[in-house]
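does this look right to u?? calcium ion version
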Amino acid sequence: MKILVVEDEVQLADALTEILKRNRYAVDTVYNGIDGLDNALTGIYDCIVLDIMLPGMSGIDILRNIRNEKLSVPVLLLTARSEVEDKIKGLDCGADDYLTKPFVTGELLARIRALTRRKGEIIDDNKLSFKDLELFKDSCSMTFGRNDVKLSLKEYQIMELLMANSGKIIPKERIIEKIWGYESDVEYNNIEVYISFLRKKLSVIGADIKIKTARGIGYSIE
Ligand code: CA
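got this back:
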């Protein structure tokens, strides 16, 4: 899961980023409205945490632009107590939820989990399944039957992306954007290395699930 944080209070932004990363989200963080809009329009995020009062462009204007572009990414607005009017405007412009500063991190995480949940899904936030393969967030591991294996954070994130989109080919660029960030200089062969680790780990636990290569495009899980 990839989250964009747009917040100009650097300390708060960095604290949020740290908390989200510790909860195994991939995070991009920007500190002004212009970068916020640029990043948001890439369409690679699963959720955007958006401050309202920002230098360059307000959170409300960013939100308007996102919705004009028909991007349905969930947006969680961060508002100050005094910004009641903006909060209403934000919800009218297509924000999905808001959180009033200061907030406790548990609440932020719960709101993000709720926003990134697919509709109608019965959720175990800690677990993602594909056939008999299960991926666990808390322990950063996957199991097949009685066998389990630990994953590194990047392995976990790649596996999460593949399992959440099972049957679909995920292009390599998409994997880079989602996991390393779209300005990252990570190369395709880095991904290939992680995929080969994952394939070994799948075979270690005896999973009859394959990560297939779509030559020149990307990967899918089957
Ligand atoms: Ca602000």
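The first strand starts at residue 2 and ends at 6. idk if thats expected tbh
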